[in-house]
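fyi for ur records
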Amino acid sequence: MSHFNEPQYVIPARYRKMENMHIIFWLLKDVSWCMIWKELGLIMILPTLIISIIIAWRTRDLKSELAHNLAITFWISANSYWMISEFFGFDEVLIWHQFTGKHLAILPFAIGVLTLAYYYLFQRQKEEKQAQVVTL
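which gave:
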């Protein structure tokens, strides 16, 4: 079977430009974190997070894309919180038992993982069954 017969996922050019800009913002945020450029790192959280939310919203009709884009949004949230905890020195502060300030980042990370788990365990199977019914 030729790959030309496969269903195509097409994205408008203006959406692709936004996604590419998102990558630049994300890299600037993480480079700022690595270099301890607090001001730039903090500033880059907003455009990075806002664009990830917009991308997720625009893909809301495609369950696979939505799940992955939501996971990215939660990843950026967790990553940003972790960066903030290091910048402001509460990353090593004990909160409860052996858990420190940075460990709270596990919450949005876990939500992202659970979003993808739900998609792959339930939604994707439903989509595959619907696709089989259509092709029969």
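The mean pLDDT is 92. thats all i got for now
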